[in-house]
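re: ur question from yesterday

yeah so i grabbed the chain u mentioned. its 239 aa long if i counted rite. heres the sequnce exactly as i have it in my notes:
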Amino acid sequence: MRNGERRLRTVDLARAAGLSTQQIRNYEDAGVLPPAGRTDAGYRVFGERHRDALLTYRALQPGYGTVTATRVMRAVHDGDVAAALALVDAAHAGLYEERASLRAAGEALEALTGRETAPPPPRPGDGQRGLRIGEVAALIGVRTSALRVWEEAGLLVPGREHGTGYRVYGPADVRDARVVRALRRSHHLFDRIRPVLEDLRREGSSEALRAAVEARGRALTARTRAMLAGAAALHAYLG
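ran it thru and got these structure tokens back, copy pasting raw so excuse formatting
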């Protein structure tokens, strides 16, 4: 403890954060709190610095998560502030990537607005419902080679016509091809397009995906605000 600092008991810290005394002991053992002093009888002695550390950790948790918050505080108490800030940077970079993916989903939805494809008519004589690769290429305005590349990348999974083995694109396949084309024109890489397609397939329709995207956007905004609050608390603690 620092000279002149008010002494706090384990129970005082526990009450300050609404935790159990055992959790306070666990936090010290994990490095979330600075090492505590000890009385002659072996009891822990905390100070205001420990209370500030505890409140900082609790402020970091909502935005950064328990694991990252623990690593940040441990790095600070090990004297490696640069490592702590690198963890903060990595968390913000991850949030940026989530926002980029969300933006890609929004662009995909714009590409689909008013353009959900109706099932193509059955082909005379073969009983199949769907389009061949050349027809899809002409419909969405790309080369057939592009559709093959997207298929090789796992973005499209058209069916195969029985007997001939020709690709057959159903309504969902055409929809997916439209999404890929729109996102590629916006220079999105395959790794960013893939989760958008997975979301669309999981939700089942563009309207369901739109609702999911809006909900995810609200969650990201809430997390950003929580991260800002946590970063402010960390800044004050470092000061």
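noticed a couple things. The mean pLDDT is 87. also The two ends are 17 Å apart (CA to CA).
anyway ttyl
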